[in-house]
């Protein structure tokens, strides 16, 4: 990853956690929901759509280690307690109708547990979310390739694509082996959420990336209806092509490494 991109990412995350992005002060949610996601599944597009309604809070990855560190940089000297931190975020990011949303990859849950945050703290945080939107992607190989490219460049969001052009940064070398490891990561994260829903019985709506892209308005209407919020309109969030079409070109290389021809994979 280019050093300047690392610097810009830090600033980007600090901006996400700054008071300038708050939508409330001292609010208490009456409804909480979570976008349960895996990397490169369209969850950012979904979160921005929901935030754009003005009736679904400001869902972001508040438990992402990068955002937690950004909060700590913005609050030097303050001890990070998960319960107090989430109460503060809820007070600042709850919409006027009482809705609070967050976005969470399963690896963020695993990260908290790995940092010795007790399960007795993590599980209640999940259980207090009243509804979940579970977004996945049918084409796991394209998802894994997109994940690999994002990790290699440090560019995860569409509005960060210009960084690579600004810097004239060369594309880091891509590895079919690493892409396949990311495929295993995606499958593991998806299984983590599936197991959670099975054990917890929490209500969730399963949405797939491909449907969000191909039938945006209908899929968004279904999501808003499931959450039970009233939105005046569905924000126009037209997606951009991922990494300039590079995933499609690299896909052939990954398939070649596995010994699978593209037509065989697509037929399966």
Automatic annotation (TrEMBL):
Pfam families named in the record: Sulphotransf
Gene3D superfamilies, sorted: P-loop containing nucleotide triphosphate hydrolases (3.40.50.300)
Superkingdom field: Bacteria
Transmembrane domains' residue ranges: none
Record-linked InterPro entries: P-loop_NTPase (IPR027417), Sulfotransferase_Stf0_dom (IPR024628)
All residue ranges annotated as the Sulphotransferase Stf0 domain in the record: 33-242
Name this protein carries in UniProt: Sulphotransferase Stf0 domain-containing protein
Native organism: Arenimonas maotaiensis
């Amino acid at each position: 990853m280019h050093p300047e991109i690392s610097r810009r990412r830090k600033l980007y995350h600090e901006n996400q956690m700054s008071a300038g992005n708050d939508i409330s002060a001292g609010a208490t949610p009456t409804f909480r929901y979570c976008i349960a996601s895996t990397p490169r599944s369209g969850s950012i597009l979904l979160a921005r759509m929901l935030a754009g309604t003005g009736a679904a809070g400001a869902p972001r990855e508040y438990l992402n280690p990068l955002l937690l560190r950004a909060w700590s940089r913005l609050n030097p000297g303050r001890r990070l307690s998960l319960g107090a931190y989430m109460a503060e975020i809820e007070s600042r990011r709850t919409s006027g109708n009482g809705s609070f949303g967050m976005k969470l990859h399963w690896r963020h849950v695993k990260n908290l547990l790995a940092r010795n945050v007790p399960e007795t703290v993590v599980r209640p945080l999940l259980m207090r979310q009243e509804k979940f939107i579970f977004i996945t992607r049918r084409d796991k190989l394209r998802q894994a390739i997109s994940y690999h490219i994002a990790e290699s460049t440090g560019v995860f969001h569409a509005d960060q694509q210009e960084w690579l052009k600004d810097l004239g940064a060369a594309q880091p070398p891509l590895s079919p082996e690493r892409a396949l490891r990311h495929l295993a990561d995606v499958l593991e994260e998806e299984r983590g959420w599936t197991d959670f829903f099975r054990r917890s019985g929490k209500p969730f709506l399963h949405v797939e990336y491909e449907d969000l892209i191909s039938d945006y308005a209908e899929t968004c209407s279904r999501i808003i209806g499931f959450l039970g919020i009233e939105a005046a309109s569905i924000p126009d969030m037209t997606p951009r092509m991922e990494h300039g079409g590079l995933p499609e070109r690299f896909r052939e290389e990954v398939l070649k490494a596995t010994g699978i021809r593209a037509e065989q994979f697509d037929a399966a």
